[in-house]
Amino acid sequence: METALTGRWVDQSVDSATRDAAQPAIQDGIQGAIADAIREWSRCSGPWSPSGPRYTPRAQKQREKAWDRALDDVRRTCRQRDPDAEARLTHSFARFAAEALDLGPDAIHLLTEGFLPVGTQLARWAHRFDHGLSHADITQAARNAWTACGMQPLLGAPLRLTPSILAYSLLYPYSDNYLDQRSITHADKVRFSHRFRARLRGEAMPAADSHESSIWELVRMIEQEFPRAHYRGVFDSLLAIHAAQEQSVRQIEECGRLSPGELLNISCAKGGASVLADAFLARGSVNSAEFDFAFLWGVLLQLGDDLQDIHEDLDRGSDTLFTRAVRAGLPLDSLVEQLLNLSDSVAARMDALPYAPALNKNLLRMSGRSLVLMAIAQARNCFTPAFLARMEPSSPFRFKFLAKRKQKLAGERGLFQRIFDILLSSEAGDMYPLAAGLPAPALHTRQLARALSA
Length: 454
What we know:
Blueprint (H helix, E strand, L loop, with lengths): L1 E4 L2 E4 L14 H18 L13 H24 L4 H17 L3 H25 L5 H20 L8 H18 L5 H15 L9 H16 L6 H17 L1 H4 L6 H24 L4 H21 L1 H7 L4 H7 L5 H19 L6 H21 L6 H7 L7 H12 L2 H12 L20 H9 L1
Antiparallel strand pairs: 1-2
Helix pairs in contact: 1-11, 1-12, 2-3, 2-19, 3-4, 4-5, 5-6, 5-11, 6-8, 7-8, 7-9, 8-20, 9-11, 11-12, 12-15, 12-16, 15-16, 16-18
């Protein structure tokens, strides 16, 4: 339970003897966290010293064979469409995790019985809520939910898809992507942002269109799980990520005119506030150590996403630290070593969280490093050959293999459609059951628009 008191919030679920001192108002806390993240980023400059496993070319080729075997199993399952297709897909993933990623039984169980069901539950709910959501939208929402659910065990909460995490995860396809579209005029973006901010503040207003009606319904789901009178921090964190999204529009509208410091500040604010909101939605409140960790983890994920999206951002004229370097003709070697050092720094802060199970910490540590290494593989032309040769032994797969498989999978849209159909289906046909604790989707988008504007 969270209590709002003179701009401060405390976690009443933690014994007073171990509870951190009350935090400052969230905006002050975020400004301090941004400054801390920038200082940490500066400290992380310099060569990266790999601390994880190292792979010989022979070992990498063995894991690549396991990748291809798992993918062949998936293709075969999708062609046959047996009643147990979903279970077979899960088995294929488990086999891949064991053979290619060297994960043990406990880690595989956490992935297949914890994280994978979260994605499936979200996809099924979202498909009922709005048939117009694309596979890409739902995949993005699932990634958001996995991040939030990954926070739960670190904060002493059980890993599960809650109504508020589901709603928050779907807000991204509806709001963030809308603000990123170049086809939307600046005036329309400003108008939408003002109305969205007012709704997050709790102001009652009818939805102007089907887009807003979906967002209003998702905010309502968060309000039902976390009443505003008792969970001020939840809604302050949502307002913080909204403000950061508004600032991030400058990366497109002022491309080439922002300083490196401004670019770093925008990425820190957006990424940090996003995962900070995950933390609040995971348990309702956080203490100061959890606040700092969640924010810095979000910064890491945002910078990792910026690296992953470098080609897309170059094409659409979006400015990040990485696109700025590429446009200047500079290799990304030093920036990415800095990012890998930041990943290690975030992992060290995670170790200080008292509730964090070792298994979860190890998986998150591996995922942070993998995020960067996978991004290197997709942008090999942005690095020097010497850097690639030094980094590649830290990856279970050769960079060239990763790039080729991604390119090949990009051409197999039909495969992803079949996987999606399997996950959405069940023995009961279209009336697949919803996960326990999740409300039935209200109305589809067009119906919501008519209902909320009536």
